[in-house]
Design goal:
Distance between the termini of chain A: 29 Å
Bound molecules: adenosine-5'-triphosphate, magnesium ion
Largest sheet of chain A: 6 strands, mixed, barrel
Number of helices of chain B: 7
Order of helices and strands of chain A: HHEHEEEEEHEEHEEEHEEHHHEHHHHH
Low-confidence stretches of chain A: 74-78
Distance between the termini of chain B: 41 Å
Structural class of chain B: alpha/beta
Strand content of chain B: 25-35%
Mean pLDDT of chain A: 85
Radius of gyration of chain B: 17 Å
Oligomer: heterodimer
Number of strands of chain A: 14
Strand content of chain A: 15-25%
Helix content of chain B: 25-40%
């Protein structure tokens, strides 16, 4: 009887219930989309921002000190302190190894440049050796695939990137190339302290920064030319990090100031400072420093995006609650004679409240299910258009949305239920 | 005492400066048929509402089947009403989207358990077994009022209360309804009916006249009881 009444009421109130369902669909789809994007976006935004380059650099502690003191940037200044190339793979063994997406060694040097078939020398130029690409299998069995190519996605390259093992090929910064009319395919000679080698120019790159007057070579090529086998000047690391909070800032000042519990929390959270700390534990003589602007903006953008999404979810929930509340109240007032009659026939207040609540909840459930799937669709559209990738669907969202929906409908029903609680059967039944 | 089903002792209902009921004393025996008459605004509906546990008096006591209901809370009044009172209204108040039999079953649901067979029997009692699956809109006014009576009777109440139950009916349907009351009276149901219609008022055993919230006349009609408004065949 109860269900027959509920379903007949629902059927009779089709247009109102459709409006409620529609409101719920709208609210739920929006919340579902926002929450899925929010949960999936942390990584997405970080990956997006990664195109701006490394967010951590590791240098020899003395070189790092010099650069702190005199504001010298990488590649300049102190050149006689080096890190060990053999340490580099240890980066993947740290606690947050999985969060390290890319890393490349850098060895800076300089050499005398001359172009084949032209008289005289061009001059003393800066060179740097690195991994253009690197494929390796780690001792853990993990397959590694990284390289400068992934860290310099914005480079505009004429010709081609040098290959992983092309030790006799180079790429030239476009400033150096245009000033000296060097083209892709030209042969050049580089010499340093009696070591003389010939190379082919495979590509010309435009960095838009201070690398544009340098020559890029493979790491072994620079080590050979500079006679620095097994040595590197720095490591560029790109890692996924958690936005800093007070604990992270305190730890960045001095990890020793933390209590053991705080230390544990900090160490096991992917803060930039925690990752830097862990890197220093494995790279001998290394000092890891976040590249501030990038690391911080990542966090801020992430925080702001999250805030925006939460705001949209809250606002859409409030909007739904208000709309639902209006619709239910109108429906209850419209039916006050019928509900008053039920009271006269012996229905308790709670029984009538339950009747109305269930009507709304059933409608809400249908709307919610529809809205959820619509929301997943929206999330994918946002993922594709904004972040260019699939957004992982978080199961947790179903639960959160269900709880929000439940409370929104409950809250929306409050005015209607108060109205029908106060409703006196004598007032509606004798009206003429 | 034992055969007194209802007793009003010094009952008043006061709205601001208006005394809708003023110091009413009334006792009704179980199985009585009482009609309440009086001009508009004299307090008839107010009285029925108080007896029907839908309202409480401002002053005085109402003893229903040995229980003082004048100070009960709303939930208790609801419980007493669903067990002891059957209500009929001038406007019938059937639920428009439920069929006749379903309307009867709603009352069963809020009393105990819906039982379609029992509901059908109740409709048969008022001569509507053929119309059980019609919606109210498909029934005549007289038929609707009979569904309403079937609904009021389904839980075997001790008292049947009607506020102008024949007010919206033509003479023929009025006679049918009165005939049903007569049968219920024979079964021992206490009947209290508010009416404007002198003919309906006259068929009762007893008639009280209200004016300005006071009982101005209390007429014993047992001598003529059963004479008026016989169903014309
Ligand atoms: N809720 C209320 N608030 C204020 N006054 C009320 C209320 N209910 C009834 N009254 C007043 O109490 C008086 C008696 O009303 P009641 O409805 O009992 O009259 P009645 O005898 O049933 O009249 P009618 O024959 O027109 O139905 C009237 O003057 C009415 O205006
Ligand atoms: Mg009245």
């Amino acid at each position: 009887m109860f269900w027959r009444m509920i379903f007949k009421t629902l059927a009779r109130q089709k247009s109102k219930m459709l409006m409620i369902a529609f409101t719920v669909i709208l609210g739920v789809s929006l919340s579902t989309a926002m929450m899925n994007v929010m949960l999936g976006v942390g990584d997405k935004v970080n990956r997006e921002l990664k195109v701006y380059g490394a967010n951590i650099t590791v240098r020899h502690k003395d070189a790092a000190l010099m650069s702190d003191l005199y504001g010298l940037t990488e590649g300049l200044g102190v050149n006689d302190k080096f890190l060990y190339e053999e340490d580099i793979f240890k980066l993947k063994t740290i606690f947050w190894g999985f969060n390290i997406l890319d890393f490349v060694p850098m060895l800076d040097g300089h050499a005398i440049l001359s172009v084949k078939g032209r008289a005289g020398i061009v001059g003393d130029v800066s060179i740097f050796g690195t991994w253009s690409e690197k494929h390796a299998i780690l001792s853990t069995g993990e397959e590694l695939s990284t390289g400068l190519k992934s860290l310099r996605t914005w480079w505009d390259v004429k010709g081609e990137w040098i290959g992983e093992n092309e030790n006799d090929a180079v790429m030239i910064g476009h400033l150096l190339a245009t000033q000296n009319k060097i083209h892709v395919g030209d042969a050049i000679t580089l010499s340093n302290n009696g070591v003389i080698k010939n190379y082919i120019v495979k590509g010309i790159y435009n960095d838009g920064g201070n690398a544009d007057d340098k020559i890029l070579m493979t790491l072994p090529a620079v080590q050979e030319l500079m006679v620095l086998q097994g040595k590197i000047s720095s490591i560029e690391v790109s890692a996924l990090t958690t936005p800093d909070n007070d604990l992270a800032r305190k730890a960045a000042q001095d990890p020793k100031s933390l209590s053991p519990d705080e230390y544990e929390t900090w160490y096991c959270t992917a803060y930039v400072s925690a990752i830097c700390h862990q890197i220093q534990e494995v790279i001998r003589d290394g000092v890891a420093k976040p590249v501030r602007q990038v690391a911080e903006s990542e966090g801020t953008i992430l925080n702001k995006t999250t805030l925006l999404m939460i705001l949209i979810t809250i606002l859409s929930s409030i909007g739904s609650a208000l709309a639902i509340s209006n619709l239910i109240t109108a429906s209850v007032i419209e039916r006050s004679q019928e509900l008053g009659l039920l009271k006269a026939l012996g229905a308790y207040n709670w029984q009538i409240a339950l009747l109305v609540l269930l009507e709304v909840m059933i409608t809400g459930l249908f709307g919610g299910i529809l809205g959820y799937f619509l929301g997943i669709g929206f999330a994918q559209i946002i993922g594709q258009t904004v972040f260019g990738s699939y957004i992982e669907i978080a199961r947790m969202v179903i639960l959160i949305v269900a709880v929000i929906l439940f409370f929104v409908t409950l809250l929306g029903s409050v005015p209607a239920i108060r109205y029908l609680m106060a409703l006196k059967p004598t007032e509606v039944l004798h009206g003429k | 005492m034992s055969d007194k089903i209802l007793e009003l002792k010094n009952v008043s209902k006061i709205y601001g400066s208006l005394k809708a009921l003023a110091d009413i004393n009334l006792s009704v025996n179980a199985g009585d048929w009482l009609s309440i008459m009086g001009p508009s605004g004299s307090g008839k509906t107010t009285m029925i509402n108080i007896i029907g546990c839908m309202d409480t008096p401002s002053l005085g006591n109402v003893i229903l089947d040995g229980v003082d209901i004048s100070k009960e809370n709303a939930a208790n009044l609801t419980r007493i009403r669903r067990n002891k009172i059957g209500l009929i209204f001038q406007q019938f108040h059937l639920i428009s989207y439920l069929t006749a039999v379903e309307n009867v079953m709603v009352a069963q649901y809020y009393h105990s358990m819906p039982d379609e067979e029992e509901a059908m029997e109740a409709l048969a009692k008022v001569g509507l077994q053929d119309r059980a699956h019609h919606l109210p809109a498909q029934l005549s006014g007289g038929e609707q009022q009979r569904v309403c009576i079937a609904r009021a009777l389904i839980n075997s109440p001790q008292i049947l209360l009607g506020d102008e139950p024949t007010g919206n009916l033509d003479e023929e349907n009025e006679a049918i309804v009165v005939d049903i009351f007569r049968r219920l009276h024979d079964e021992g149901v206490t009947i209290i009916i508010v009416t404007h219609d002198p003919e309906v008022g006259d068929v009762a055993q007893r008639k009280i006249i209200l004016e300005h919230g006071k009982i101005v006349n209390d007429i014993d009609q047992s001598a003529t009881f059963g004479e008026a408004l016989k169903l014309r065949n």
